[in-house]
Amino acid sequence: MKRNLFVRICSVVCVLTLSWAIVNVVRFFRSKSSERVIVDNNNASSEEGQIIDIRGMAPTNLEIIPEVIDFGTVVPDTVLEAKFSILNTGSELLYLQRLKADCICTSAETDKAFASPGDSIIVTLKLNTKDKEGNTVVYATFMANTTMVLHKIRMRAKVQEESRKAL
């Protein structure tokens, strides 16, 4: 009697575990195949939060103008702002996604998420030089529907050392 009960409980547990595993495998492959993304740009006007299906999206070309901005020597505790133009040089719609700055001292945002052929997307990169000294290089990365998917923009500055107060 005890053995029968034990066998039945084990059978139920096995069935539930197998069902859970099948459901999770199906969810995993469904999410991989749909390749749906959410526009997560901080300032993407009307496209913000819109779900875009990028399956089969035609690749295009882009040019980053400039790729690096050098501010030279700057004083500490300032906010530096650089604007980069992402020019769509291809014949298809350019789509930017997952714009991310490399550290908490840097922010990155765009004026829009899409650009028609010949149009540009402006990316603004801001660096707070508080608690920075010497040569500083920050960057942001983004993905686009281009042959080379990951792109990087950089800004650099030499932050002057603060004069130390005598105790």
Report on the structure:
The chain is of the alpha+beta class. The protein has a domain at 45-159: Sandwich (Immunoglobulin-like). The protein has one helix and eleven strands, in the order αβββββββββββ. It has one helix spanning 2-34; strands at residues 36-38, 51-53, 62-65, 68-74, 79-88, 94-101, 106-110, 114-115, 120-128, 134-144, 150-159. A five-stranded mixed β-sheet has the order 4-11-10-6-8, with no helix packed on it. Strands 3-5-9-7 form a four-stranded antiparallel β-sheet, with no helix packed on it. Strands 1-2 form a two-stranded antiparallel sheet. Strand 10 and strand 11 form a beta hairpin. The chain is elongated. The protein starts with a helix and ends in an 8-residue tail after the last strand.
Brief overview, please?
By secondary structure, the protein is an alpha+beta fold. It is 20% helix and 43% strand. It has one helix spanning 2-34, and strands spanning 36-38, 51-53, 62-65, 68-74, 79-88, 94-101, 106-110, 114-115, 120-128, 134-144, 150-159.
Topology:
Elements: H1 2-34, E1 36-38, E2 51-53, E3 62-65, E4 68-74, E5 79-88, E6 94-101, E7 106-110, E8 114-115, E9 120-128, E10 134-144, E11 150-159
Parallel strand pairs: 4-11
Antiparallel strand pairs: 1-2, 3-5, 5-9, 6-8, 6-10, 7-9, 10-11
Number of helices: 1
CATH topology-level fold name of the domain at 45-159: Immunoglobulin-like
- Radius of gyration (CA) equals 25 Å
The CATH superfamily title of the domain at 45-159: Immunoglobulins
Low-pLDDT regions: 31-48
Order of helices and strands: HEEEEEEEEEEE
Name of the level-1 CATH class of the domain at 45-159: Mainly Beta
Instruction: Report the mean per-residue pLDDT as an integer.
Output: 78
Largest sheet: 5 strands, mixed
